[in-house]
């Protein structure tokens, strides 16, 4: 297959941005890499953090952002056996890992101390052609719509991993904080598909209607509730609290509340990353009630396979709106204003 020398991309040339829509060279895959012709790329809030250099990670500059890229394999290195030309593939946040450290050997490659992160430490999917390590890229079934599956590569995978990390079992109750948001709506669907009962926690009647439509057993509106802790407990079996709490909130307050309504021997899983926030819980209650408090990051290779499989079976529907790649700056503006419902997916020119 003949490949062009140049391609269109959104390039962050200086910390803080904005991204510049320009032509750059088409990269060539290394021995263990694939080159994916990107058809669609979701836009995640992490992409905005990347442009601003908000996190204590080495920021590549100039940078092509994006880590929810779905497309077609058009070239591959000589060591790649996982993909053939023409296969559909996904470029995710975890672009590469050393595969030799203790974490990688145990299938915990997201914890690798030397990761390659799409759209942060290496160029990502806001371009026509993107590179990914074959071992960490996702195989996408050819009967799955590439625009619809793009948000699953980060948002869907992240919440699915959090539910697995909670240790919750079918029939038990999970409280999802921020259930009416983009991540929350996916977490609710994965929870339902896993046979869990969901107590959705968020604010407003619009989010209530959406959560109930997606299968929430109960909706607790924190803007109207006089006592969120008691309302959540009342919605659970025997009033003993949720077996697990999934924290997707963008503010610190809910992180402090969770210990009040999680069931004894239950799990609190922090996924959301509110700025400068801390997790706090009473030591006495945490000990005598044997509460498990933990964080959950992105999923590993097997988690990715499972998250996509749930989607391919028609059990997960991520609401999204498609706009051209050139409109990325406007998407970032809406994101900063808090005006995005669901996910924006960039249509990459072919």
TrEMBL record:
<dbReference type="InterPro" id="IPR002328">
    <property type="entry name" value="ADH_Zn_CS"/>
</dbReference>
<dbReference type="InterPro" id="IPR036291">
    <property type="entry name" value="NAD(P)-bd_dom_sf"/>
</dbReference>
<dbReference type="Pfam" id="PF08240">
    <property type="entry name" value="ADH_N"/>
</dbReference>
<keyword id="KW-0479">Metal-binding</keyword>
<keyword id="KW-0560">Oxidoreductase</keyword>
<dbReference type="InterPro" id="IPR011032">
    <property type="entry name" value="GroES-like_sf"/>
</dbReference>
<dbReference type="Pfam" id="PF00107">
    <property type="entry name" value="ADH_zinc_N"/>
</dbReference>
<dbReference type="GO" id="GO:0005737">
    <property type="term" value="C:cytoplasm"/>
</dbReference>
<keyword id="KW-0520">NAD</keyword>
<protein>
    <recommendedName>
        <fullName>alcohol dehydrogenase</fullName>
        <ecNumber>1.1.1.1</ecNumber>
    </recommendedName>
</protein>
<dbReference type="GO" id="GO:0008270">
    <property type="term" value="F:zinc ion binding"/>
</dbReference>
<comment type="similarity">
    <text>Belongs to the zinc-containing alcohol dehydrogenase family.</text>
</comment>
<dbReference type="GO" id="GO:0004022">
    <property type="term" value="F:alcohol dehydrogenase (NAD+) activity"/>
</dbReference>
<keyword id="KW-0862">Zinc</keyword>
<feature type="domain" description="Enoyl reductase (ER)">
    <location>
        <begin position="16"/>
        <end position="346"/>
    </location>
</feature>
<dbReference type="InterPro" id="IPR013149">
    <property type="entry name" value="ADH-like_C"/>
</dbReference>
<dbReference type="InterPro" id="IPR020843">
    <property type="entry name" value="ER"/>
</dbReference>
<dbReference type="InterPro" id="IPR013154">
    <property type="entry name" value="ADH-like_N"/>
</dbReference>
């Amino acid at each position: 297959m003949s490949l062009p020398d140049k391609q269109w991309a959104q390039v962050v040339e200086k910390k803080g941005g904005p991204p510049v829509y320009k032509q750059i060279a088409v990269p060539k895959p290394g021995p263990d890499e694939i080159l994916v012709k990107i058809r669609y790329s979701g836009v995640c809030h992490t992409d905005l953090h990347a442009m601003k250099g908000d996190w204590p990670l080495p920021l590549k500059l100039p940078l092509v952002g994006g880590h929810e890229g779905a497309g077609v394999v058009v070239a591959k290195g000589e060591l790649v056996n996982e993909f053939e030309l023409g296969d559909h593939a996904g470029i995710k946040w975890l672009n590469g890992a050393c595969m030799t450290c203790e974490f990688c050997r145990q299938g915990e490659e997201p914890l690798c101390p030397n990761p390659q992160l799409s759209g942060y430490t290496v160029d990502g999917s806001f371009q026509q052609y993107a590179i990914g390590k074959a071992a960490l890229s996702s195989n996408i079934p050819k009967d799955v719509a590439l625009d619809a599956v793009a948000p699953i590569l980060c948002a869907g995978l992240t919440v699915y991993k959090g539910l697995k990390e909670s240790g919750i079992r079918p029939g038990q109750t999970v409280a999802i904080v921020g259930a009416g948001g983009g991540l929350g709506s996916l977490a609710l669907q994965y929870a339902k598909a896993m046979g869990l009962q969901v107590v959705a926690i968020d604010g407003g009647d619009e989010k209530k209607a959406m959560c109930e439509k997606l299968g929430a057993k109960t909706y607790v509106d924190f803007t109207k509730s006089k006592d969120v802790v008691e309302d959540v407990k009342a919605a659970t079996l025997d009033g003993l609290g949720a077996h697990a709490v999934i924290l997707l909130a963008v503010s610190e307050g809910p992180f402090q509340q969770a210990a009040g309504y999680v069931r004894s021997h239950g799990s609190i899983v922090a996924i959301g990353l509110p700025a400068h926030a801390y997790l706090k819980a009473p030591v006495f209650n945490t000990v005598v009630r044997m509460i498990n408090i933990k964080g959950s990051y992105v999923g590993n290779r097997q988690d990715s396979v499972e998250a996509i499989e749930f989607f391919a079976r028609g059990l997960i529907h991520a609401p999204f709106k498609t706009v051209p790649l050139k409109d990325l700056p406007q998407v970032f503006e809406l994101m900063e204003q808090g005006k995005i419902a669901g996910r924006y997916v960039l249509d990459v020119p072919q």
